[in-house]
C-alpha cells in the first residue's frame, strides 16, 4: 500500500510539470481525431521478371538504392499529371507510396480521404507507372533492332561481292551474320515482352499486375483515437520534460537548508515549511484545513520565524528573493500580521515593483504617493489601514515618477525608512528580487543597503545554487546588513503533505474518499 500511495503522491507533485501537458496533448489528439476524416489506402502488386530485365531500374530491384529510385520515378510530376488528367482528379505526390517486397514484387499505393474510386485511381497510377518505366526500354530495344537490321543488310551486300573468292573471309562474315541474327531474334522477343504491357493482356510482360488494387482495411475509429491520444500524451510528456526538466539538467538547485547555507556562504535564518494553499481575502491570507479557514500567521512555524527576524532585532527588515516567486510577499504579510497581533504597530511596505503583489491583494490600487517634507509629524496619509488589523498599515508600491526618482537618489531610501520607523514600531519591506530588471523599479540592492537587516529568500527545488551565491555576494559587496538566507519549502512537500493536499481537492466532490486517503496517508510509512 505504501508504494501505491508514494506513486500517487509523486504523480500529484508533477501534475503541473507533466500532468497538465499530458492532458492537453490527449485532448488535442481527441479533437484532431474527431475533426480530421480517416485516410483510406489502396495497394496494387506488380510482378517483375527481373532476370529478363535489361532496364537499370528493373535489375535487382531489392538492391540498395533501387527502391528510392523507383519511388522517385513514380512520384514524377508529369506521370502524376497524366494520371490525374485521365481520372479527372489531381494526384498528390505526398499520398503516393512504393515498396519493394522482394526481387520480383513491387507494391504501389495511394492514400486519400475520399473512399470512392480509390482502387481505380491506384490501378491507373500503377499502369501509367509501368508504361513510363518501360517506354525507355522499348525505345532502346527498337533502336538496337534497327541497328542490327542495317548491319544485316550490309553483311548481305558484302557476301554478294565476295562470291567465293576468299573462303576464310566469307566464313567470317557469315559467322557475324549468324550472331547478329540471333541477337535480333532475342531483341524481338524482349520487345514483345515489353509491348505486352501496352496491350490488353500483360500477364507475360516484363512487369505487370500480380494483383489489382485492393483497399487496405482502414484503422478502426477507436483504434485511431487511442493511438492519437497516446501520441498526444507522449508529446505532452516530451514538452513537460523540455520546458521544466531539461533546463534544470546541469544546474544544481537548492534542496535543503544546509545546501542553501553552503551555497550562499551565509547562516540559515530559517525555513518556511509548506503551510497549505494560500488564498487571498480582503483581510489577508488564509488556508483551508478540514473546511475551516485558518490564518497561517497564527501557526507555530511562523511564530519561530517572527521571533528570529522581528522580535529580537531593531530597524527596517527587508525580504527579497533571488529570481522572483520565492514567496517574499506572502511571508512579509504573515510576519507583519503576527507582529501586529502582538500589539505592535507595523508598517508593511510594498517595494516589490516587479509584481506589486501586496498592493493587489489588499486592493490598494496605484501608489501615487510622494515623499513628505523632512520633519513631518503626525500620521502619514499614504499608509493605508488593513481591515481587521488595527495596528497594521500598508504603503502601496510607488508609481509616481517623481517619487521613484527620489527613491533612486542618494539618501532617498534612508529618508523613507526613517519616516516609516517614526510612524511604526516595526517596518517590514517586501523588495523586488535581485534579478528584476523592469523599468520603473527601485534597485533591490539599494533597498537592502538602506535597511537595518536583510534576509535573502531562496525557493527549495527551484533556486539555482549559483544564482543564490551571486545574489548573496552582490549584497555583501555593497555592505547590505545580510542576516542570512531563508529557505521557502512551498514546493518541496513531503509525500504525506502531498496526499493531504490531494485529499483536500477530492473532498470537495467525494468526502468519504478524501477521508480514506487521509487515514491511509497517516498510517503509511511515508516521508
Write the layout of secondary structure elements.
Blueprint: H1 2-13, H2 15-35, E1 40-48, H3 66-74, H4 77-87, E2 96-100, E3 105-112, H5 118-162, H6 167-195, E4 207-216, H7 221-245, H8 257-264, E5 268-272, E6 279-281, E7 284-289, E8 292-294, H9 300-311, E9 317-321, H10 328-341, E10 346-351, H11 357-361, E11 383-386, E12 389-395, H12 401-408, H13 412-423, E13 426-431, H14 444-449, E14 453-459, H15 465-477, E15 482-488, H16 495-507, H17 511-523
Parallel strand pairs: 5-15, 9-13, 9-14, 10-12, 10-13, 14-15
Antiparallel strand pairs: 1-3, 1-4, 2-3, 6-7, 7-8, 11-12
Helix pairs in contact: 1-16, 2-7, 4-5, 5-6, 8-15, 9-10, 16-17
Helices, by number, come to 17
Q: What structural class should be given to the helix and strand makeup?
A: alpha/beta
What is the level-2 CATH architecture name of the largest domain?
3-Layer(aba) Sandwich
The CATH H-level homologous superfamily of the largest domain: P-loop containing nucleotide triphosphate hydrolases
How much of the polypeptide forms β-strand, as a percent range? 15-25%
Low-confidence residue ranges: none
Can you list the strand order of the major beta sheet? 5-15-14-9-13-10-12-11
CATH topology description of the largest domain: Rossmann fold
| Net shape | elongated
Q: Report how far apart the termini are.
A: 14 Å
Largest sheet: 8 strands, mixed
- Overall tally of domains: 3
Could you tell me the radius of gyration in angstroms? Answer: 42 Å
